[in-house]
């Protein structure tokens, strides 16, 4: 009996390490792709700057949007969402794997479902967001308020408006509800548990929906500093991690909201 328990614990530890390694590889590849330019003609380093908003003197002609270019943009956005969001979802993925393995040992399910199925559902939500973000990028570029090359705002009203909108959302009840779910993966899994591969995929979608509800306004701030601006990408990634994983994360959102409101107002009044 003791040997069986020992073997089970060893299996769980090995499975946990495999999942951690798999997530780490995916995240590292996503960051590598983004730093290299995400399929664009420039590296992310060359598109990183401190200007807010971009100078109109830098304003480039709109990009030529073809189906191929749109697919490149969707891939770039999706890879960026993987790099930014998957680290904060890792604890939920690991907990899902532990719960499904325990359920299989107890005979509650016939077999465990790979955690990759749960991850696929989660990332499907961010693929949908990436498609919408690409469409919004196209509209803003056509309107002449973001730079076609640097992919950042050249309009103080757009930059300030996005910051104010993000600030208001940070202070909203919906933000709080979604953040609470993201910070309590055990509660989410217990309340939304579904068996089988389709159930795992749907649970991944559900968790992704809460994460999207928590972070969509933060992700749109990429238009303020530049979609491929590493300073903004790293900064927003840190904000997401702190909100979801740190002990004081639930208290951080209101402070960030106030800061975004102040920053947006200053951009509109002073730039």
Search tags:
10 helices; mainly alpha
Q: How would you describe what is shown here?
A:
It is a single chain. 74% of the residues lie in helices and 0% in strands. It has 271 residues and is an all-alpha fold. It has one domain.
Give a short summary of the structure:
The chain is an all-alpha fold. It has helices at 2-35, 67-105, 115-142, 156-170, 173-182, 185-191, 196-220, 222-225, 230-245, 249-270. The longest helix has 39 residues, at 67-105.
State mean pLDDT (0 to 100 scale): 87
Percentage of residues assigned to helices: over 70%
Q: What overall geometry do the principal axes of the alpha carbons give?
A: globular
Decide which structural class fits the backbone: mainly alpha
**Radius of gyration using CA atoms only:** 20 Å
How far apart are the first and last residues' alpha carbons, in Å? 71 Å
Low-confidence stretches at least 5 residues in length (pLDDT < 50)?
Answer: none
**H/E order of the elements?**
HHHHHHHHHH
Quick one: biggest sheet?
Answer: none
Number of beta-strand segments = 0
In terms of DSSP E residues, the strand content is: under 5%
Number of domains: 1
Number of helices in the DSSP assignment: 10
Give me the secondary-structure topology.
Layout: H1 2-35, H2 67-105, H3 115-142, H4 156-170, H5 173-182, H6 185-191, H7 196-220, H8 222-225, H9 230-245, H10 249-270
Helix pairs in contact: 1-2, 2-3, 2-9, 3-7, 4-10, 5-7, 9-10
